[in-house]
Write a structure and sequence with these properties.
Layout (H helix, E strand, L loop, with lengths): L1 E2 L3 H14 L5 E6 L3 H16 L3 E2 L8 E6 L4 H21 L2 E6 L5 H10 L4 E3 L7 H11 L3 E3 L6 E2 L12 E5 L1 E2 L10 H5 L3 E2 L2 H13 L4 E5 L8 H6 L9 H9 L6 E5 L8 H9 L6 E3 L7 H7 L5 H14 L4 E8 L6 H14 L3 E6 L17 H24 L5 E5 L2 E2 L7 E4 L5 E4 L9 E9 L3 E6 L1
Parallel strand pairs: 1-8, 2-3, 2-4, 4-5, 5-6, 6-7, 9-12, 12-13, 14-15, 15-16, 20-22
Antiparallel strand pairs: 10-11, 17-21, 18-19, 19-20, 21-22
The structure holds 5'-deoxyadenosine (5AD) and iron/sulfur cluster.
5'-deoxyadenosine binds next to strand 15.
């Protein structure tokens, strides 16, 4: 696997820092989309801070405004254009530098639209994150607009500075890109082909996090359980740790890390070795995100998900048998082209059977360049919305039903801090991501405690320390 040499690109951090010296400049960043984008933003923040900018949450104070964009669904696009419209005045008034990066910038029609109708200084893509300092330098020094998009695959970037959002939980990207080409999804077109980071680099990063006091890591990738698959098939793996199962076991050995999560896996890659690793590794969360997308075998086929309703359900059954107390969350799309009432009923049926703890629900959104966008049997908006509401209702009932199971039981959880909605309480989350509030002293923040659940308030639970 090719590791890109970015030494020369990183020298621009120092160059921009020199230009910025003594100016007390601030940056503002808005991140759209998934945890992978959030992790990229942490790297952008790392670079910005080393270039002498300090972070502000108030865009008005910012000398550098960064948008890290997502294009998985349409609403992100509307949001970006709205924001670019708003920031225009600020740019005209005080010369704020505007940098736009991320997935949406890998789409030619979007970049063309920005160039034509909006103000910006730097446009960078998902493959050119590491060039952000150089692009910024060129924009400042040459006072011109920079567009730096590459359409390449298979490179691994290591060694970017990083400024993490949290000091207890950390995300670690283990692989990038996707080879699955689900027919609704734009990710393979904007993030490129699947490539995995070397296990040594990943383990080194996590050991460093443990030393710094981090307790929880989330392993990230578009398709985490196919970690090293491409490399394995090409005979390019360089280590014993050449699968997701082995990586989980290796991370589980790292002292100081108490909880390991991962997202997102693909049902088709949930091989027995992965299930066994989850079962055997004490630190690996037993709350698994298992994207369903649709419960109908017909729709799944057209989506190119390569599993049937029955195969998905039997995977769930197998996992329930092999991993005691396993719980699931999922992603579901409603209104995919050609989805009939019967197909939708199949989705509801799977939801009832699996009894997910958490469901991320999406209305199908046409993405230019994807096969599903060209399908003629698009579903009318009102039907999509009606189905979405039905799914939402079912989910809300399920939340209430699932919550009952929690009352009287005790759960170990990390104390994350004060509750944002009620600062008399501390807050943590069960392994299944349920927010729990409880009374306690400040000095237990960052520690793992045992909490008994005493009452249910639908979207959160109340508990007491035992
Ligand atoms: N429309 C709606 N939802 C989508 N997702 C991906 N592409 C689309 C689309 N075109 C959802 C999938 C995926 C999640 C990250 O976003 O459910 O798992
Ligand atoms: Fe998109 Fe499917 Fe790849 Fe997930 S697995 S990123 S939904 S193409």
């Amino acid at each position: 696997m090719v590791k890109k040499n970015i030494e020369n690109d990183l020298t621009y951090i120092e160059k921009v820092k020199k230009i910025n010296e003594g100016k007390n400049l601030k940056y503002y960043i808005l991140t759209m989309g998934c945890q992978l984008n959030e992790n990229d933003s942490e790297k952008i923040c790392g670079m910005a801070e080393e270039m002498g900018y300090t972070k502000t949450d108030d865009i008005i104070d910012a000398d550098l405004v960064i948008y890290n964009t997502c294009c998985v669904r349409e609403n992100a696009e509307e949001k970006l254009f709205g924001k670019l419209g708003e920031v225009k005045k600020q740019k005209e008034a005080k010369g704020t530098i505007i940098a736009i990066g991320g997935c949406m910038m890998q789409e030619e029609h979007i970049v063309n639209k920005i160039k034509k109708s909006y103000k910006y200084d730097v446009i960078f893509g998902t493959h050119t994150l590491y060039k952000f300092p150089k692009d910024l330098y060129d924009a400042i020094i040459e006072n011109k607009k920079i567009t730096d998009i590459l359409d390449i695959d298979g490179e691994i970037i290591e060694g970017l500075p990083i400024k993490r959002d949290d000091n207890i939980r950390a995300s670690v990207t283990i692989m990038n890109g996707c080879n699955n080409f689900c027919t609704y999804c734009i990710v393979p077109y904007v993030r490129g082909r699947e490539r995995s980071r070397n296990p040594e680099d990943i383990l080194l990063e996590i050991k460093k996090l443990a030393k710094e006091g981090y307790k929880e890591v989330t392993l990230l990738g578009q398709n985490v359980n196919s970690y090293m698959r491409v490399e394995r098939e090409k005979g390019e793996e360089i280590s014993e740790i050449n699968s997701f199962a082995k990586l989980l076991r290796a991370v589980n050995e790292i002292k100081g890390i108490e909880k390991i999560r991962f997202t997102s896996p693909h049902p088709k890659d949930f091989t027995d070795d992965v299930i066994e690793a989850i079962r055997d590794c004490k630190k690996v969360s037993k709350f698994i995100h298992l994207p369903l997308q649709s419960g109908s075998t017909n729709v799944l086929k057209v989506m190119n998900r390569v599993y049937t309703k029955e195969q998905y359900l039997s995977l769930v059954d197998k996992m329930k048998k092999m991993i005691p107390d396993v719980k699931f969350s999922t992603d579901i799309i409603v209104g995919f082209p050609g989805e009939t009432e019967e197909d939708f009923e199949d989705t509801l049926d799977v939801v009832k059977k699996v009894k997910y703890e958490q469901i991320f629900m999406f209305i199908y959104s046409r993405r230019r360049g994807t096969p599903a966008d060209k399908m003629e049997n698009q579903i009318p908006e009102e039907i999509k919305h009606r189905r979405f509401d039905r799914l939402k209702n079912l989910y809300e009932n399920l939340v209430e039903e699932n919550n009952k199971e929690y009352i009287g039981k005790s759960f170990e959880m990390l104390v994350e801090g004060y509750s944002k909605t009620n600062n008399e309480y501390l807050t943590g989350r069960t392994d299944t991501n349920k927010v729990v509030i409880f009374e306690g002293k400040e000095d237990i923040i960052g520690k793992v405690v045992n909490i008994k659940i005493i009452s249910d308030h639908k979207w959160y639970l109340k508990g007491e320390i035992i």
